[in-house]
Amino acid sequence: MKLSIVLLSCLVVLAVMLAVSEAKQVAVLSENEEVALESGRLVGILDRWGPEFFVSFDVKATSFINKWQSVIYFTIDDIDQKNSDLGVYGCRIPAVYIAKSTGTTSHLMFASAINGNPNEYYIDVNNDISVGEWNNIEIAQTHDGDVTYSFEVKLNGQSVYTSTNTQAQEFSNVRVYAGSPDSRTPALNGVTRRINARESRIPDVQDGIKARGAKFGDVTIEESKEACYARCLNTEGCTFWTWYYPSSRLAKRCSVYEGEITESRTNKHAISGIISLDPPGTTRCISWTHTDCTGREKEMSCNLGVYETRQWKVSLQEAQDSCRMKSDCFGITKDNGGYEPRSGTTPYSNGAAHELWICDA
């Protein structure tokens, strides 16, 4: 599946400069830039969106008000033409808000099109969002098998909400707003950075396809397609993989292959993906961007998401060599356990994370 952004290249991040119209400011969304949240700030139009998707971004509030405040908003509605309708499936896919507050802390609220409800929402009252602190938010909808999709929200790397969506859909011409769609809902007083939006956690996948070729190694049982993808990534010579959903008679079986795909068939119970033919570690992470959070953990972001099996190394060099060999490694965090290659794409603050090295290329 490929994600394209109107007026831009396909796949990957809203990390671009976009001049929307004369009446709107140029929004700069890139790895290091902060963007003020505003009403009507259109930052991109996605040609296709869903049924799988992955959204990640950082947000920092400068103050709260006693009204609901919008942070980021994905919608099929042309809200500039006042056609917004919360009864339309796809009006929020997803949308993120901050709850009303007269103090310095508040809570996250998010909404999306789930199980036929165009505005299925949840308020995370168990975790505070504080003025002046960066928070990382991830929202993902991934295929579980047949017609079911898993919808999950993470706050600073921790899962705060999960649900099964049996009515996930593909949408087109989806508008993305940094802040609120229009003046009827105030934007949060604050900034965002590192907006990342794509159709899947895993690159270059084709859902509903069974690919075959020169199989090598044993068929293994992997609990998720991400695990099957990781197996191929970490198997020298692997160029593509196929995994079967739990609903299949071949439930959770993972096959990895070398060479070219010789056969490709439709199979609703399967998902396949390809791996870059470049040898692991030969072109990745030529340089690193270093951030020192020592003594400033609350103000700076040195933490990244971890692999299911922890990867601590004794030295930075050892961790860098390990990261180069993993196509899904984005950086290294130094914490109390040592130097650890990490798979998360967006840094966030954590008191135990002291230094960070981001893989630049």
Describe what you observe in this structure.
This protein has 361 residues and is mainly beta. The protein folds into 3 domains: 17-198, Jelly Rolls (Sandwich); 205-274, Hepatocyte Growth Factor, CATH 3.50.4.10; 288-359. 5% of the residues lie in helices and 47% in strands. The strands form 5 sheets. Strands 4, 5, 7, 8, 9, 10 and 14 form a 7-stranded mixed beta sheet that branches. β9 (105-114) and β10 (117-130) form a beta hairpin.
Features:
6-stranded antiparallel β-sheet, 7-stranded mixed β-sheet, mainly beta, 3 domains, single chain, disordered N terminus, Hepatocyte Growth Factor, about 350 residues, Jelly Rolls
Number of helices: 2
CATH topology-level fold name of the largest domain: Jelly Rolls
Cα distance, first to last residue? 23 Å
Instruction: Indicate the structural class.
Output: mainly beta
User: How many distinct beta strands?
Assistant: 23
Q: What is the annotated CATH architecture of the largest domain? A: Sandwich
Overall mean confidence score, pLDDT: 79
Based on CA atoms alone, the radius of gyration comes out at 21 Å
Strand content: over 45%
Low-confidence stretches: 1-32, 277-283
TL;DR of this structure?
The protein is mainly beta and 361 residues long. The protein is 5% helix and 47% strand.
